[in-house]
Amino acid sequence: MNKKKRIGFLCLIGGLLLGLGIGLSLYRRSTGNVGSNQSGKAGTETEEKSDTEEDTEEAAQKKERVIVENTDYASIDNTLYSWWFKRNDNHERSGCQDDFDIAEYQAYYTVPVSEKRMYFTFDCGYENGFTPDILDTLKKEEVPAAFFVTQTFIRDNIELVKRMKEEGHLVCNHTVTHPSMPGKSVEEQQQELLTCEQYMKEATGYEMDLFFRPPKGEYSKRTLQMAKDLGYTTIFWSMAYLDYDVNNQPSSSHVVEHFQKYYHPGAIPLMHNVSVANRDALGQVIRNLKKEGYSFGTLYELQNEK
């Protein structure tokens, strides 16, 4: 090959390589593949796949929201009940109020499973400095939880609420003003739920998970029907202890011992995020339950049990 031909050939090869390089660059930009991680896999691409899988799994758990209109609420009993349950130290399901079957109104106090599985829930009316540590412990132990938040809590703790969602927890409805719901008109009760969930979306960008915990544990058949008609599942509890009074806190060892004595399959413990005892005991509680063979689920599993 003479000198002119060699030069022409090299120019051709150079042009092809340049074009190939530009094409790969454009491809990487369009697909989001910005490099490889330590294992040699494309880092962003792997993360996107993981996010997609998580979204698909979560979507599979959720059912389409159905809102029922034109219910004759005047015909539904509005007698006020205060939630109570009876502890069982044989690690069997707690007893509860039996005036009527709350499940008829899409309300539950345990998840009806037989395996060793627990469902942590926290009520969040305001922040007392302990929620970040609680989230740290849940993340370290890889345990999901449901946080029942008021509008005030969302307003004052937007980044915390975002963190809850980003780390795989449920953020659920505890109303706007934390009232005794049966004392409100149906329209006022509806606004307590709808305004709180709308504010959640506007303030954080995240949809509220459609689970409702009645403030003070006070409810009526009418209240439960109202929540069900809005597409909510009402959640009570099968384990609880005095932890909401910040000036009268149990010891962390009391919390640990309480869980050791009363855990049971399908348990829904009620805890408050303002409790220093809960903050200090949570890690040990989780580790003890794991030793007993327990795993931890989310309230969306209720939809698969119906």
Question: Any overview of this molecule?
Answer:
Strand 2 and strand 3 (95-96) form a beta hairpin. The chain starts with a helix and ends with a helix. By secondary structure, the protein is of the alpha/beta class. It is globular and about 50 Å long. It has helices at residues 3-31, 43-61, 131-141, 151-156, 158-166, 186-204, 221-229, 252-262, 276-291, 301-305; strands at 81-82, 85-86, 95-96, 107-108, 117-118, 120-124, 145-149, 170-173, 211-212, 218-219, 233-235, 270-272, 295-296. Strands 8-7-6-12 form a four-stranded parallel beta sheet. It has a domain at 106-305: Glycoside hydrolase/deacetylase (TIM Barrel), CATH 3.20.20. The protein is built from ten helices and 13 strands.
Listing every helix as H and every strand as E from the N terminus to the C terminus, the arrangement reads: HHEEEEEEHEHHEHEEHEHEHEH
How many beta-strand runs? Answer: 13
Distance between the termini: 80 Å
Proportion of residues in helical segments: 40-55%
Give the CATH superfamily of the domain at 106-305.
Glycoside hydrolase/deacetylase
According to CATH, what is the topology of the domain at 106-305? TIM Barrel
Write down the overall mean pLDDT: 85
Rounded to an integer in angstroms, the radius of gyration calculated over CA atoms is 26 Å
Note the main attributes of this structure.
single chain; 306 residues; alpha/beta; TIM Barrel; three-stranded parallel sheet; 10 helices; globular; disordered N terminus
Topology:
Elements: H1 3-31, H2 43-61, E1 81-82, E2 85-86, E3 95-96, E4 107-108, E5 117-118, E6 120-124, H3 131-141, E7 145-149, H4 151-156, H5 158-166, E8 170-173, H6 186-204, E9 211-212, E10 218-219, H7 221-229, E11 233-235, H8 252-262, E12 270-272, H9 276-291, E13 295-296, H10 301-305
Parallel strand pairs: 4-11, 5-13, 6-7, 6-12, 7-8, 9-11
Antiparallel strand pairs: 1-10, 2-3
